[in-house]
Write a structure and sequence with these properties.
Layout lengths: L1 E2 L2 H10 L4 E5 L22 H10 L3 E6 L10 H20 L5 E3 L9 H15 L5 E3 L21 H5 L5 E2 L1
Parallel strand pairs: 1-2, 2-3, 3-4, 4-5, 5-6
Helix pairs in contact: 2-3, 3-4
Length: 169
């Protein structure tokens, strides 16, 4: 379950206090066809306070989540989002959380998939140990994908792009 504001944390505490939580961070998705940051994601200046509140409420934060927007055209948005995620992992460790998972969402565009995956893989190698589990959406599962089946039918494209990571499907 994801959260990106304090109101959500209080609701989770009341309704699902045992849930495993992911702090969804805001990303620069200005190059995306569908800008999810207009509605979702905690700004980097609020992440530490949210983690502190989650700790105070005795909630179980297990990871960080981001999505660079559907149809992203700038591969560097992945690099920046991974770097920001690393900062949040460090903040969480200072507060007493042991985060194990990073959800990199989707946003892969068919035309630039290889470049996006390469930048993402390099950023993960630079900022995270291989023990951090990576979750990623498959490009063909994007609801608003411009050409749903333009990629190969092999739904492991993202996993192959991140060969040294333990990824969930």
């Amino acid at each position: 379950m994801t959260f990106d504001n304090s109101d959500e944390l209080y609701k989770i505490k009341a309704l699902f206090p045992e849930a495993e939580l992911f702090l969804r961070i805001l990303t620069d998705d200005s190059s995306s066809l569908c800008r999810l940051s207009l509605k979702f994601g905690a700004s980097m200046d609020s992440t530490k306070g949210l983690l502190e509140l989650a700790k105070e409420l005795d909630l179980n934060v297990v990871g960080v989540s981001f999505h660079v927007g559907s149809g992203a055209s700038d591969p560097q948005c992945f690099a920046k989002a991974v770097q920001d995620s690393h900062t949040v992992f460090d903040q969480a460790a200072e507060i007493g959380f042991d985060l194990k998972t990073l959800d990199v969402g989707g946003g892969f565009s068919g035309d630039t998939f290889e470049e996006m995956a390469s930048v993402l893989s390099e950023a993960l190698d630079e900022h995270f140990p291989s023990s951090v589990r990576i979750i990623s959406l498959y490009p063909c599962m994007q609801r608003h994908c411009s050409s749903r089946h333009s990629r190969s039918s092999n739904q492991n494209d993202v996993l192959h792009a991140l060969p040294q990571r333990r990824c969930l499907r």
